[in-house]
Task: structure prediction
Amino acid sequence: MADNNVLVRVKNLKKFFPIKQGVIFNRQTIQVKAVNDVSFEIKQGETLSLVGESGCGKSTTGRAVLQLHKPTSGQVLYEDQDLTTLSEGELRALRPKIQMIFQDSIASLNPRHSVRKIIGEPLVIHNVGTAKTIHNRVVELMELVGLNPKWMKRFPHEFSGGQRQRINIARALALNPSFVVCDEPISALDVSIQAQVVNLLKDLQQQLGLTYLFIAHDLSMVQYLSDRVAVMYLGKVMELADKRTLFSDPLHPYTQSLMSAVPLPQPKLERKRKRIILQGEVPSPSNAPSGCVFHTRCPLAIDRCTTDVPEYRQIHLGHSVACHLVDDQQSSIIPTRLNSK
Result:
């Protein structure tokens, strides 16, 4: 590895879903390009967040990284081991190290199983320990996520949404993973509960040395939890930088529009700030625009944007962007032009 601290490296990841039509021939007619040539790295112990509008490919990217969706092409390297080339048996052996926290705490928990069985199931599947050690591990995990072990005989419907998500987290941690994909784990929760779950995730990361791929659309939570942030639009990464740079000096017009929607805690500054309202609807991933996929909604689009796909390149150290209008020497040209509109 070029960087020994990199735990996960994603290279040119693509995931296309074929759409077939016809009762008799069932022929493929088009493809939904949910993830289209996505690349990023995640260092040991850090949190990389994926943000963007609904349908931009965030969740599909997370599932493709864990091979829950088999990628169409590309590489996913975990500790220099390419997950896309592993057999089912080899991938199963690696599963304890790579886990996922799902968004829907109702759908992801079996309503017929008790909490003890849900949290202990990974240990049973991977033949880890005896019945007694599994019981003790379930007690330990419930205490770790802030649940009373006396509740282990209860069923998912007897818990609140926040408590069910804590059960999800406990199950994901059962096998001591090092890498966890958090697929919008707070989006279905009340605002007051969201902060509790995010604080729990942050505490667990520090306590257990976890590495997160955090998928969300709540930028305030992303800013609090993340080390770096990648902005996705229609299956592609538009911009990637550390959170401080991205929130203070976004370069891509799409990133700027997202950041303008984040409320500021100072009322005077909030009143003076201009919102960037994008026109039109997000195009279908089955019929993405030519050139830059954002050009149909970009307030600064030029002729070149309609024909040429922008190169995803590093502008500054650790700050990459895919936009024809960002100049390596004058990267502030876009903020200046947008603010003047």
Observations:
- The radius of gyration is 21 Å.
- Residues 31 and 128 are 41 Å apart (CA to CA).
